[in-house]
Amino acid sequence: MKAVVLDRYGNIDGVRAGEVPDPELRDDDVLVQIHAASVNPLDLKILEGKLKAILPYRLPIVLGNDLAGVVVRVGAAVRRFKPGDEVYARPRQDRIGTFAEFISVNEEDVAIKPRELTMEEAASVPLVGLTAWQALIERANLQAGQKVLIHAGSGGVGTFAIQLAKHLGATVATTTSTANADWVERLGADVVIDYKKDDFAEILHDYDLVLDTLGGETLKRSLRVLKPGGQIISISGPPDPSFAKEAGLNWIVQQVMCLLSFRIRRAAKRRDVTYSFLFMKSSGEQLRRLASIIDAGAIHPVVDQVFPFESTKAALDYVEQGRAKGKVVVKVG
């Protein structure tokens, strides 16, 4: 089958289109013919080799982390799906490869796609949707009336998280550029900070939660907006010991991550708030619940641009430039 393959770490030059063997179907797998897959910053981090300590892939591998498509075969133990079902999924991290014509995915990681969405729209959801769900609901237990700051509101995670937080009844602040300010307000943001003009840390106070998608100096300054007992959850900051332990990483890597996150954890403790790192997990159950919310009209996926499959490298390059509003999708089938 046709696929987009990473041969060597470094940059997009290490990526090529080629032929790879068809995927094997395990007893608890569904074989999906992929119609669309989305491009995520995670794909770029993988191909650059930034996640080798966490994700020790053996190259070459097929890239791609989420999909929408049609089930063509099911394993002997599968009971929830049948050929012809339209599904969407985020494969487990050790089984990625959605920039391809077919993929085998564990049944537990798959859900029927939202009926109101096109394949391209559905493919834009899994990774960012699960990230937002696991940050806002599973970890933070965000409640109606609470206040949350979501950084980079015009990005893939930001556009989804704003809408999910509003669905939960929270007051939502976000940071974005001048050009996107009105747009993220229409998504549901109550307070929009133009990061080119204003300092969010001087404006926002007594927030319950920060969802950090940027890391670095933004992460450090975000501590100032939280009230005592507040939380900052980061998908871009340094991994913390809890993540390293849960991920089953070896002792040496655990100690390295402990050191990497020491300063931000100490700074958070001094302000009587908590810092944690989130690395999203696959979950068909959470995708099913998200599909219900989407079909009810509470969340509308934002797709910036759709690239043909043969232009996947161009799509990766476009995401790398950092100017996409919402998600970038590759049309496969």
TrEMBL record:
InterPro entries with a match to the protein in the record: ADH-like_N, ER, GroES-like_sf, NAD(P)-bd_dom_sf, Quin_OxRdtase/zeta-crystal_CS, YIM1/Zinc_Alcohol_DH_Fams
Residue ranges occupied by any Enoyl reductase (ER) domain in the UniProt entry: 10-330
SMART domains: PKS_ER (SM00829)
GO molecular function: oxidoreductase activity
Gene3D superfamilies cross-referenced by the UniProt entry: Medium-chain alcohol dehydrogenases, catalytic domain, NAD(P)-binding Rossmann-like Domain
Record CDD domains: MDR_like_2
Keyword Oxidoreductase applies: yes
Entry superkingdom: Bacteria
Keyword Oxidoreductase: yes
Enzyme Commission number: 1.-.-.-
UniProt KW keywords: Oxidoreductase
This protein's name: NADP-dependent oxidoreductase
Organism this protein belongs to: Rhodococcus jostii
